[in-house]
Amino acid sequence: MIEVKNLVKVYSSKKNKVIGVDNVSLTIKNGEIFGIVGYSGAGKSTLLRCLNLLERPTSGQVIIDGVDLTTLNDKELRQARLKIGMIFQHFHLVSSKTVFENVAFALKAAKKSKDEIEKRVNELLEMVGLADKRDAYPSQLSGGQKQRVGIARALANEPTVLLCDEATSALDPSTTKSILALLKKINRELGITIVLITHEMEVVKDICDRIAVMQDGKVIELGTVYDIFTNPKEELTKSFINSVLQFELPDHLLKKRTGTIVKIQFKGEIAEETVVSDMLQTFNVKGNILHGKIEYIQDMPLGIFIMELTGDPDEIERAIDYISLRTNGLEVIASAA
Amino acid sequence: MLLNSLMNLVPELNKAFLETLYMVAISLSVAIIAGLPLGILLFVTDRGLFLENTTVKSVLGFIVNMIRSIPFVILLVGLLPLTKLITGTTIGPTAASVSLSVAAIPFFARIVETSLREIDKGVIEAAVAVGATPWMIIKDVLLPEARPGIMHGITITTISLVSYSAMAGIVGGGGIGDLAIRFGYYRYDNTVMITTIVILICLVQIIQFAGDRIARLVDKR
Ligand SMILES: Nc1ncnc2c1ncn2[C@@H]1O[C@H](COP(=O)(O)OP(=O)(O)OP(=O)(O)O)[C@@H](O)[C@H]1O
Ligand SMILES: [Mg+2]
């Protein structure tokens, strides 16, 4: 478990002070994939780098598995870092060392014997699917392969936590998918807690359990991905989510419609109920679906439909009330002309 | 006639050539042995690095700059007491090697520091994050990553030493440069002058060529 308590990081130079992280407190549970999102400069990297003390907090505590990292001396901190893996956007591999040597370096830091290192590196390279690249240099690898080496290095000493700073931002979409799948596998099979920064909501939707949204050094919203996606509170969060759940009807299409246009959101189990057909049978209205899709977030369905309702205005109103009551997520986009 | 005077020169040239090699070899070795750790220290004690230490950094930086700002001829004469202390004499190639070494150490240290500065900070940070000790980071990250740069630095230092060693004549150090000055400059002997210059040009070319080759060989990127 990672507990962050009243964490503040201020960068002060002679001229001015920049607040990187502004009094953040949060708890990350064992075995979860925790996402941190926010625009550039929000303080995501600073927060993440405080978790392994690459950045020393100005004040506050970082407690991992019961140990307050800020109280450790150099040697104890190195020991603690063995159990906190980290991967980076630009991989940061040692260019003059082979894939094998890059991974072995982490094990050397843990003072493992030569035989143990040999065995463990091969095991790790097998796991990340790079056994055949053992003796290649980083310059001979693709971005995705480099990140796999980074992951192998980070996992070398069987950490309990893996920190990822924009680990997929330098990769193309299909490579991103494969790296995310690998991270998910690591999380599920090895039970490693993953904290990842991203500005891509797709990534969040794919693999995170909970997320924190950051702005100006503060965490402004925090919750399970499903809750945040279905019920965002802050404007910033909404704008992030809209980037994934794009649901705009073209203007000219909207103008041509004569009925009442509603947007209906189905959450969780409701998505599996027959709300719309019940409504059409109960009320004397006609429904015409203009747009619709079901997203799966954390394996739970989130359905969004845009419908045009035509018929008697009173009936339409009753129908709308009925759906609102059952789904808790109806929004009238345009009333009948 | 020309051939004859050249033939007469051979023993003299031979001796001078060996003296040059001797002085350059000694001072280069000292420069590497002392300058490499000094350069590393200058780098790792810098702000934001894993052995950040402002006091050490500024004291070392000041000493290095001080020595580097003294003209070599003055260093050569000024260090005579030290030379006497270390070698027991103030003349000859061994004595000249002392001042050459003192001048070469900070020169090489700055080159090492510059090569280290070119390493991506993220790579060093990744090593810190992995839980590596400072010594491991120096040995397994900094030195391998800066190897081509340091190799170039050795080449540059060697060539500078060849040229500085010419001034060693002032303290009776000998060497090719000294020969050129004694015969060519004071006695207007053009044959000697041109011959020694040709030899120096060849020597520098060979050093540069060899240095480049080695730098390429050690560059694994
Ligand atoms: N070493 C530093 N020195 C001074 N200010 C810094 C330093 N690192 C970060 N900052 C400042 O702290 C704030 C937060 O930066 P941070 O890198 O954490 O943002 P971020 O959310 O990771 O952004 P991005 O998405 O661009 O990576 C910014 O205003 C930044 O300018
Ligand atoms: Mg960042």
Principal-axes shape call of chain A: elongated
Number of strands of chain B: 0
Q: What's the overall average pLDDT of chain A, rounded? A: 91
Question: H/E element string of chain A?
Answer: EEEHEEHEHHHEHEHEEHHHEHEEHE
Helix-strand makeup class of chain A: alpha/beta
Q: What bound compounds does this protein have? A: adenosine-5'-triphosphate, magnesium ion
Proportion of residues in extended strands of chain B: under 5%
Q: What share of residues of chain A is helical? A: 25-40%
By oligomeric state, this entry counts as heterodimer
Radius of gyration of chain A over alpha carbons? 25 Å
Task: Determine the CATH superfamily of the largest domain in chain A.
Answer: P-loop containing nucleotide triphosphate hydrolases
Largest sheet of chain A: 6 strands, mixed
Strand order in the largest sheet of chain A: 6-7-8-3-9-10
Strand coverage percent of chain A: 25-35%
Family (chain B): Belongs to the binding-protein-dependent transport system permease family. CysTW subfamily.
Membrane topology (chain B): Multi-pass membrane protein
Transmembrane segments (chain B): 20-44, 56-79, 85-109, 150-171, 192-211
Keywords (chain B): Cell membrane, Membrane, Transmembrane, Transmembrane helix, Transport
Explain what the structure shows:
- Chain B: Belongs to the binding-protein-dependent transport system permease family. CysTW subfamily.
- Chain B: One of its GO terms (cellular component) is plasma membrane.
- Chain B: It is found in: Cell membrane.
- The complex is a heterodimer of chains A (337) and B (221).
- Chain A is α/β, with parallel strands linked by helices and 337 residues long.
- Chain A has two domains: 241 residues, Rossmann fold, CATH 3.40.50; 84 residues, Alpha-Beta Plaits (2-Layer Sandwich).
- Chain A is 36% helix and 30% strand.
- Chain A contains twelve helices and 14 strands.
- Chain A has a six-stranded mixed sheet with strand order 6-7-8-3-9-10, sandwiched between helices. A four-stranded antiparallel sheet of chain A has the order 2-1-4-5, covered by helices on one side. A four-stranded antiparallel sheet of chain A has the order 12-13-11-14.
- In chain A, helix 6 links the parallel strand 7 and strand 8.
- In chain A, helix 11 runs antiparallel to helix 12.
- In chain A, 39% of the residues are buried.
- Chain B is an all-alpha fold.
- Chain B has one domain: MetI-like fold.
- Helices cover 81% and strands 0% of the residues of chain B.
- The N and C termini of chain B lie far apart (55 Å).
- The mean pLDDT of chain B is 91.
- The structure holds adenosine-5'-triphosphate (ATP) and magnesium ion.
- Magnesium ion binds next to helix 1 of chain A.
